[in-house]
Amino acid sequence: MLEIEDVRVGYHRSTVLHGVSVEVPANGVAAVLGHNGAGKSTLLRAAVGLLTPTGGTVRLDGEDITRRRPHERVARGMAYVPQGQQAFPHLTTAENLQLVADGRRRGREAVAEALDLFPALRALSGRRAGLLSGGQRQQLALARALVTEPRILLLDEPTEGIQPSVVAEIEETVLALAARGGLSVLLVEQHVGFAMRAAQRYYVLEAGRVTSSGEGGGDAERSVREALSV
Ligand SMILES: Nc1ncnc2c1ncn2[C@@H]1O[C@H](COP(=O)(O)OP(=O)(O)OP(=O)(O)O)[C@@H](O)[C@H]1O
């Protein structure tokens, strides 16, 4: 569904990705793993259009979107959850979701459906986002993305810096979303076990190059750990 082909991209004069190819299957999950600084976030920024590649192609449903602006990609069904659990800290959980829902035909239903996935958030709907825990803020960030009813979700380390019990909740939600169908996910993740349970395809990124890739699933976990030496 999303094809990133031979993409070269970076910042100012420094190239970070030296010809990276990644494919996200329709209704499937592709995981990107790699050490700090390998270029994982840069790949997602190029996928959503925050960075424009100097080489290569990004295609969505076969359409070349390499030069499309982020809002055009969002209009085509892309949602991006960057690292850092972003939400408006002075607005409540409910207001943060409402802000995304406003003006959407199915806004109200989409908020209700997102809250069904995160019962803990429903209980916190009146609490300001700035007072939520890191894990709860991450859940809110995911819920905000889901209110846009995306067809493809780009997730940048949804479990980063989050306590293990909440990591399990986030993992469950991502697995449930993927199993529900109608959604593809490009998942950047440091937890190898989670990434391999979720993904049909995996890519290991090292210093801006894919050094290992293959089919996901538990059997591949060992080769990924070896590739990453973790
Ligand atoms: N805004 C920026 N301007 C210049 N260089 C940047 C910028 N963002 C990232 N870089 C550089 O690009 C390289 C890849 O960074 P990136 O954030 O994509 O890696 P990552 O694999 O996501 O790492 P992490 O797991 O630590 O988030 C690093 O060398 C980083 O210093």
Describe the overall structure:
- The structure is a single chain.
- This protein is an alpha/beta fold and 230 residues long.
- The chain has helices at residues 40-48, 70-75, 93-101, 107-117, 119-123, 134-147, 164-180, 192-198, 221-228, and strands at residues 2-11, 14-24, 29-34, 55-60, 63-64, 78-81, 152-156, 184-188, 201-206, 209-215.
- The strands form two sheets. Strands 6-7-8-3-9-10 form a six-stranded mixed sheet, with helices on both faces. Strands 2-1-4-5 form a four-stranded antiparallel sheet, with helices on one face.
- Adenosine-5'-triphosphate binds at residues 11, 16, 34, 36-42.
- Residues 2-230 form the ABC transporter domain.
